[in-house]
Protein: DUF6232 family protein
Organism: Paractinoplanes pyxinae
Amino acid sequence: MSKRIYYSRKDAVVTDQLFIWRTKPLKSFAVRDLRNVGVVRATARPASPAIVMAAAVITVVAVGAGWTMFQPSTALAVGLLAVTVPLACILPSMVRRPRGWELHALYRGSEVVLYACADERQFNQVKRALRRSLEDARPPERGLDLAAA
């Protein structure tokens, strides 16, 4: 059982022996086996297909409702389509997931993502906790601890 807890929240737990990322499935790493830990700024990812489909359905419903309620002339209908079609094409690219941060490391010979988060403050708390855990996991330096009498 670990003696010291550096960070414990719903997303992750950092102790003097373990780094646990509470995802599905749970990811757990022994701190003593982590090497070359570093921070990577994740790229913005496009919106999920579900969001794109929802935007398309809302656009079609809005155009259909406007067409039924107002019974537009042909010129107005063409103008409405000229506005909604580009909007439907541009909207998915505007809806992006924010860029986040990731902790990468070499763990038992494999490159792994230890932790990822879009919230900068939360990510930095986990990063600092892991740094403290790694520093405490190092063996004490030897050779200069003897004093001459």
